[in-house]
Amino acid sequence: MIKNSGFTALWLVVVTALAGCVQLTEEQQRAALLSEFDGSLAQLQLNLRQLERRLGHLTDDKSCEQDSHCKVLAKGVRPCGGPEQFLVYSALGTDEPLLLQTSEQFTLLRQQQHQRLGTISSCELVLEPVASCQQQQCVLQQLEYAGR
Q1: Distance set, CA 47 to CA 42, 75, 105 (Å)
Q2: pLDDT given for residue 70 in this prediction
Q3: Which of 17-26, 55-64, 83-92, 134-143 has the lowest mean pLDDT?
Q4: Greatest CA span in the chain, whole angstroms?
Q5: Taking the model in full, what pTM does it have?
Q6: What are the C-alpha distances in Å from 60 to residues 7, 57, 91, 123, 139?
Q7: CA–CA separation, 94 vs 63, rounded Å?
């Protein structure tokens, strides 16, 4: 006996689709993959969220005395290549080996997620920002482009 009504509904959609009565759109197929019923993908999503929280915690202290204390970390990976985001952190208050290890794990799992879901993205070139120390806090500098 199945107690979870969400599972029952999903099962009926899948059975109906297999019977040829309903065609699942690509969006519906992705939603099914993202559902709690796909254990390995759900675990991957959970691990990514945990690593993302850890990255946030590890880069939380942005206190600095000079620009050389401020560093930029490329986080994750976009489906087309390159990092999905840049984080700023202070070398003074950060366990850098743990931060780099966590970032590498996050990037690896994000790559696996993109492969499993067939994710696509734009392929524009994103330049790495520059970090500086302003008012004893590490910040990312906005880059000005000649093309603007």
Answers
A1: 9, 15, 10
A2: 97
A3: 17-26
A4: 66
A5: 0.68
A6: 39, 5, 11, 29, 12
A7: 10
